[in-house]
From TrEMBL:
Protein name (record): Murein transglycosylase
Family: Belongs to the transglycosylase Slt family.
Signal peptide: 1-23
Pfam families per UniProt: SLT
UniProt keyword annotation of Signal present: yes
Stored Gene3D superfamilies: 1.10.530.10
Keywords attached to this entry: Signal
Keyword ATP-binding: no
Length: 307
């Protein structure tokens, strides 16, 4: 038995030695390794554009502080490649929903990038309790006309939440005087920005000393705007077919209670999961609707989820 163990040990050493020698022989020289590394992957310092603007308001890039903060956000968001590709994919699906609502309210198109940095164009939930693409708090949602309860939460309704966000942004612009400050106030609140403007005796976002999150906020919007508008410049490669497409739907009016959404979905040839994907604002397995309010439920068009 001992002899067999010794023979196995020797055989194991021989195999390991052989693997080591082969690996050593196959390993590239320093010169070849460096050449391969350079050819396969490169990290570049990025050139900050000479001129940037948000909602028609110029960014003072001649200020060294502003230049460095812009450079940081371009670098961080360019080299977070997986997240960047997801933003391109989702933007193709959701920007066509958001853009006409912004235009209807006279809110600059650049604010669609605010939704990108708020939620990554998903129905995100923040630790503070904000919900949806626009990360609206419960009280704010109700203030701007959204129904928010355990049964229905319209912060998850993209069109309705975008309408509410537009109203908030217009109010901020009227109070603060610029779209850039309105964007910052979406993060820090109108009172918070007003208080800092008065305390620091300045009138522009770019002159404010703010905390980390709000201090980066507008620069993150600008970075996503720049990258999403110039994919090739920042090294993102994809085809049109790689991007996500919006699924066509039609609306079904409901003005009564729905006792079981599983059965309701089956009447339209879909399942519970698909119903909830297209109507994330329906937060329960049923709809109470004691007030007989009229809701519009999105149903995918025939055959969209079948072969």
């Amino acid at each position: 038995m001992k002899m067999i163990k010794n023979m196995l040990a020797l055989l194991g050493l021989a195999l390991v030695g052989g693997l080591f020698i082969n690996a050593f022989q196959d390993a590239p020289t320093d010169e070849n390794f460096e050449k391969k590394l350079v050819n396969d992957y490169n990290v570049y310092a990025l050139q900050v554009p000479d001129n940037l603007e948000f909602a028609g308001e110029p960014v003072p890039l001649n200020n060294p502080d502003i230049y460095e903060r812009m450079d940081r956000e371009l670098l961080v968001n360019t080299y977070w490649q997986s997240n960047g590709l997801l933003m391109f994919k989702r933007a193709q699906k959701y920007f066509p929903v958001i853009e006409p609502i912004l235009a209807k309210h006279g809110v600059p198109d650049d604010f669609k990038y605010l939704a990108v940095i708020e939620s990554g164009l998903t129905n995100a939930v923040s630790p503070a309790g904000a919900r949806g693409f626009w990360q609206i708090m419960k009280e704010t949602g109700r203030e701007y006309g959204l129904e928010v309860n355990d049964n229905v939460d319209e912060r998850y309704h993209l069109e309705m939440a975008t309408e509410a966000a537009c109203e908030y942004l217009k109010k901020s612009k009227a109070r603060l005087g610029s779209w850039t400050l309105a964007a910052a106030a979406y993060n820090a609140g109108n009172y918070g920005i007003t208080k800092e403007l008065e305390r620091q005796n300045v009138t522009a976002y770019y002159d404010l000393l703010l905390g980390e999150e709000t201090g980066r906020y507008v620069f993150r919007i600008l970075a996503l705007k720049e990258i999403l508008n110039h994919p090739n410049k920042y090294g993102f490669n994809f085809r049109d077919k790689d991007l996500y497409k919006n699924v066509p739907t039609y609306k079904v009016a409901v003005d009564t209670a729905v006792t079981d959404f599983t059965s309701f979905a089956e009447k339209f040839g879909i399942n519970y999961k698909i119903l909830k994907i297209h109507n994330p604002w329906l937060r329960d397995k049923h709809l109470n609707n004691k007030s007989r309010k009229q809701y519009f439920i999105d149903i995918p068009k025939d055959g969209i989820y079948t072969d």
